[in-house]
Design brief:
Oligomer: homotrimer
Structural class of chain A: mainly alpha
Shape of chain A: globular
Radius of gyration of chain A: 17 Å
Distance between the termini of chain A: 55 Å
Number of strands of chain A: 0
Number of helices of chain A: 9
Helix content of chain A: over 70%
């Protein structure tokens, strides 16, 4: 089930990334590359940080074809996908929490400290979007107040604490995904925002 | 021969990178660093993705001196290099295809899936330029329609298919380099462009 | 002593990073992430380049808590930290040279070529700031003429040459740190700058 949701999530990430690339008038190659970076960049960064080789897409390169296919399919469907705004946002939210749980699993397998497990989940869930924004030459959206990384933190925290308490893996994955997903959807619906640190005095002369 | 072209290509990449740094009024250190990232970033990224250690420039650090030397030499020669626009573009095209073939070789050695071999070639050929543009705070040029990554894909594809068909390595390297180089030069001369995905409705509200 | 200065330097880097994030109106999560990237990014990049696992913050994740704590503490203290401009700049200079010496040590342990040892020191000292500027969507400050990377080069050079000459490690660490620190402070006080390469003819059509 986690694997099915993983593919669904990757497809959703690829589609939102393709729309972002389209807004910057990128060519088809750029669309594919931004899609790959967004959908697979978080997991890649986590694996490089943990020294966990081979990378997921090196072991199973058909993921690359799936992502590029989803991205290219978005081009003719852009108008439709645009009207499907809510389904896409929901899939994106699902991706965030599913990636987080998968990232925590990799961290647990690698036997690292609990803090690093949570960080591995958060990197998996969020780093793809950061890389997308850097390549599109934006200040990453994730830093602009949306409740996104926090959702990942909460999801990973619930999942890890549940496992520590001896609860079964499948149950905890489900619980963490449902809670994280609900939190993200609520944040979107109610426009919850993180508090911001606004500081406009230039310190460096 | 591949090694000779490798050094030629690295020098050319370092010089075009130095000009890009000069256009942004960087200091000498910035010029060297942008040159290193552009000339060596693709190979470094490929090696990190494949877990292929030590990195080329760690094993042979004189490459770093060559790149910095070429970059610094570009400073007094900028006016001249500017007039030599076509030679530099040709060397840059040569670099693209030579790096691609070298990247495919590393992928084949590492025993990865054919798709990953092609990706390794493409990353080697193109990622340096992407990193340069990110550090210079541009949307990477490669996403703006130039036939650049596609040339790398075609070069890698021809090379790999030839090897699969049992043709000798040296022959296929030469064939792939000649075809890729011709394709890139034609694309430059005829201003071929990739189709773009232009989409200007903001999806995220 | 080096360890104590390491923690002091990490805290200082986290605080200056938090101010940079605040100037861009980031949320609290963004403040923590920019602080982690700035304080730990250089060491992480060095370890990934050398294939030196586990990363420092994976082995000792309490560093992450320290960095996030220092960053969040900067938010209410921003006005105060602003008035403490010189102490913060001094701590930042200390961080640069201490990180450089630590980076050289890791390079020496890994048994790489002297050039790579110096590069490892420089990456440790400076890459965090480069990553911070990329995430904040600036052209990295380090390329704009400040005597920053050069200080790192000189510090690493003195340290490594001293060790080669058979001088004791502790002495050389102290000497390199004092000289590097003095050089950076002089550069700040006297506004020394690296020569720039200004070149404004567009080469690519």
């Amino acid at each position: 089930m986690l694997i099915f949701m993983f593919y669904l999530a990757i497809t959703a990430e690829a589609m939102t990334a393709a729309l972002a690339a389209g807004r910057r008038n990128m060519d088809w190659f750029g669309v594919c590359l931004i899609a790959c970076v967004t959908a697979l960049g978080g997991g890649t960064m986590r694996d490089i940080m943990l020294g966990h080789y081979p990378l997921a897409w090196v072991a199973n390169p058909y993921i690359l074809l799936l992502v590029c296919g989803a991205a290219l399919a978005t081009i003719p469907l852009a108008r439709l996908v645009d009207r499907l705004k809510w389904p896409v946002l929901l899939l994106d939210a699902l991706g965030l929490v599913v990636f987080t749980v998968i990232g925590c699993n990799i961290g647990i397998e690698a036997g690292v400290h609990p803090i690093v497990v949570i960080v591995a989940g958060m990197v998996t869930g969020t780093a793809g979007g950061v890389l997308r924004d850097v390549l599109c030459n934006d200040i990453p959206l994730i830093f602009q107040g949306e409740l996104y990384a926090t959702v990942s933190l909460v999801t990973g925290g619930i999942y890890f604490l549940g496992l520590q308490a001896g609860l079964p893996v499948d149950l905890m994955a489900l619980v963490a995904i449902v809670i994280g997903f609900a939190l993200r959807v609520l944040a979107l619906a109610l426009k919850w925002e993180m508090p911001k640190f606004v500081y406009d005095r230039e310190m460096r002369k």
